[in-house]
């Protein structure tokens, strides 16, 4: 179990590496389809589709609803400029990583890739950073220097976050308050949090197009047989020595992890948002491409349906190499 690196890679070095290894390849493979994956908001009516529980009620077309006896909402042509916001959980639990990559480092790479992909096409990105509270707000801006500024702010935080229970709801409520214009919002977290975040996430999705980016490490789901291990709760600093030789203990750990996993996935499903899961031992580019493919498949199914603009179930994708 390795702690977060005391010295994170400089923003310029990290972004250059991502540009050579991930961003350029993704930009070519997506071939402009990012506009269909993360839609902006506009003023021109594009289509109608059936109302879903997370839709903005202000977009209901009451004439069509009365005629068809089923609620329908208007969809609008997206603006040329898309605004994306990253709501980033950098609380103590994301410092964990069982191999060479921590969840915090994975979050930084994901933000670097998506932010640069978007700003390369003239879009704007902003961010809210959460430790034990929302302590940093970076207004939406353009260009490579803006992305470097965001990555540097993420790297400049302490090597270990201050202990304390994560209240992800506070980050989501702050997002509702600060992000005024309809935007694409990426909530990046391991979702290890006090209860109540799912309702706040659903509320955020009534106004914005929200994607939950869940970070996790395979060791959080199943312990290997490696003998006596001192385990530390990152959010309380409490320590416990456990014997991983004990098969019964490993089974109880896996069962408890599965219960947490089920509760987390249920919360995401109730929120009605798309979910991308990124594992610390997975491949970031493959995960983004598979997520993009899944959303495009859903869009094609919507076009083939007999009802105008019919949506689909939220997308849930586990990254390549992840433990389901």
What do you see in this structure?
- This protein has 324 residues and is an alpha/beta fold.
- It has a single domain (11-41, 78-226, 262-318), classed as 3-Layer(aba) Sandwich (Rossmann fold).
- 39% of the residues lie in helices and 20% in strands.
- The protein is built from nine helices and eleven strands.
- The strands form three sheets. Strands 5-4-3-6-7-10-11 form a seven-stranded mixed beta sheet, with helices on both faces. Strands 1-2 form a two-stranded antiparallel sheet. A two-stranded antiparallel sheet has the order 8-9.
- Helix 9 (284-304) links the parallel strand 10 (274-279) and strand 11.
- Helix 1 (11-30) runs parallel beside helix 9 (284-304), helix 4 (103-119) packs antiparallel against helix 5 and helix 6 (168-178) runs parallel beside helix 7.
- It is globular, with a radius of gyration of 20 Å.
């Amino acid at each position: 179990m390795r702690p977060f690196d005391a010295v994170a890679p400089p923003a310029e070095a990290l972004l250059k590496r991502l540009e050579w290894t991930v961003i350029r390849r993704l930009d070519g493979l997506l071939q402009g389809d990012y506009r269909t994956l993360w839609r902006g908001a506009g003023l021109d009516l594009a289509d109608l589709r059936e109302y879903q529980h997370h839709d903005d009620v202000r977009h209901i077309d009451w004439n069509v609803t009365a005629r068809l006896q089923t609620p329908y909402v208007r969809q609008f042509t997206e603006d040329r400029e898309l605004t994306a916001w990253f709501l980033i959980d950098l609380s103590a639990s994301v410092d964990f990583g069982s191999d060479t990559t921590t969840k915090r480092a994975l979050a930084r790479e994901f933000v670097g890739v998506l932010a640069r992909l978007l700003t390369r096409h003239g879009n704007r990105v902003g961010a809210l950073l959460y430790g034990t509270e929302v302590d940093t707000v970076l207004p939406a801006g353009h260009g490579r220097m803006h992305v470097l500024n965001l990555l540097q702010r993420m790297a400049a935080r302490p090597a270990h976050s201050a202990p304390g229970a994560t209240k992800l709801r506070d980050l989501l409520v702050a997002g509702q308050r600060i992000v005024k214009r309809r935007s694409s919002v990426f909530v990046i977290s391991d979702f290890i949090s006090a209860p109540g975040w799912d309702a706040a996430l659903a509320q955020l999705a009534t106004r914005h197009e929200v994607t939950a980016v869940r970070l996790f490490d395979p060791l959080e789901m199943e312990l290997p047989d490696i003998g006596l291990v001192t385990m530390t709760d990152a959010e309380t600093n409490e320590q416990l020595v456990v014997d991983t030789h004990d098969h019964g203990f490993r089974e109880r750990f896996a069962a408890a992890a599965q219960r947490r996993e089920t509760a987390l996935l249920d919360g995401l499903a109730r929120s009605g948002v798309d979910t991308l899961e990124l594992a610390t031992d997975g491949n970031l580019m493959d995960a983004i491409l598979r997520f993009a493919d899944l959303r495009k498949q859903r869009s094609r199914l919507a076009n083939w349906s007999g009802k105008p603009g019919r949506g689909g179930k939220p997308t849930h994708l586990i990254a390549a190499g992840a433990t389901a």
